[in-house]
Amino acid sequence: MERFDRQRLRRFTARDAVMATALIAVLLLLFAGGSVRRAGEELNPGIGRDVVLAVGKPTGWIADRLPFSDLSHTLTGWLSPDKRLVGAGFAAAPPSRAGGGASAAVTPDWFEAAALGEPQPRRRLHTLLVTGDSLSTPLDLELGQRLAPDGVEVIRDPHLATGISRDDVVDWAKLSATQVAEDHPEAVVIFIGANEGLPMPGPGGEDVSCCGPDWAAIWANRARQLMDNYRQDGTAKVYWLTVPTARDPDRKPITDAVNAAVLAAAAPWRSQVRVVDTAAIFTPGDRFRNAMEVDGSQEIVREADGIHLNGAGSSLAADAVEEALDRDFTH
Amino acid sequence: MLFPTVPFAIFFPIVLTLSWLLMPKQRLWKPFILVASYVFYAAADPRFCLLLGAITVANQLAAVAIHATEGERRRKWITAAAVTFDLGVLAVFKYYGFFAQNVGDLLNSFGLGLPLPLLSIALPVGVSFFTFQAISYTVDVKRRLVEPASLLDAAIYLSFFPHLVAGPIVRAREFIPQLASARDPEHVAVGAGLGLIGLGLVKKVMIADYLGRVVVDPAFGVPQAYGGPDLIFAAYAYAAQIYCDFSGYTDIAIGLALLMGFIFPQNFRSPYRATGFRDFWRRWHMTLSRFLRDFLYIPLGGNRKGRARTYVNLMATMVLGGLWHGASWTFVLWGTFHGTGLSVEHALGGRVKLPAWLRWFVTFNLVVFAWILFRSPDLELFWTYVTGMVKPGPLTLVSAPAVLALLAVIGLQLVPERTSEGIEVGIERLSPVLLAVALAALILIVGATVPSQGVPPFIYFRF
Question: Is the minimum CB–CB distance between A16 and chain B shorter than 8 Å?
Answer without folding.
Answer: yes
